[in-house]
Amino acid sequence: MLLEARLIEGDAVPDDQYAFDHILPTRLTWSGHDFLDTVRDPEIWKKTKEGALSAKGFTFDLLQDLAKGFIKKQIEERTGIAF
């Protein structure tokens, strides 16, 4: 899922026991770092998860947009500067 969302990159590692290769994560992509920075605050992550659960579905892009919306609201409440 994280690989498909392009949040991580990885290398395929063949496995004779299974009919498919395993993916060995090698690094976070720029998008992966951006996503983690967006949900780093525990309160923002909590609100983001609750919002996604109440919507009963999400993509990583929508999840990140939701988190950014909560961050913008938090900045506005703390500084009075609207985005």
Report on this structure:
The chain is built from three helices and two strands, in the order ββααα. The protein starts with 7 loop residues before the first strand and ends with a helix. A two-stranded antiparallel sheet has the order 1-2. With 83 residues, it is an alpha+beta fold. The protein has one domain.
Give the C-alpha Rg: 17 Å
Low-confidence stretches: none
> What's the N-to-C terminus distance?
31 Å
| Shape label | elongated
Largest sheet: 2 strands, antiparallel
What order do the SSEs take from the amino end to the carboxyl end, as H and E? EEHHH
The beta-strand count equals 2
In which range does the helix fraction lie?
Answer: 40-55%
Number of helices: 3
Strand order of the largest sheet: 1-2
Mean pLDDT: 87
By secondary-structure content and strand pairing, the structural class works out as alpha+beta
Count of folded domains:
1
Strand content: 15-25%
Topology:
Elements: E1 8-13, E2 22-28, H1 30-38, H2 42-55, H3 60-79
Antiparallel strand pairs: 1-2
Helix pairs in contact: 2-3
Give a short synopsis of this structure.
This protein is of the alpha+beta class and 83 residues long.
Structural features:
alpha+beta, 3 helices, 83 residues, 16% strand, elongated, 52% helix, two-stranded antiparallel sheet
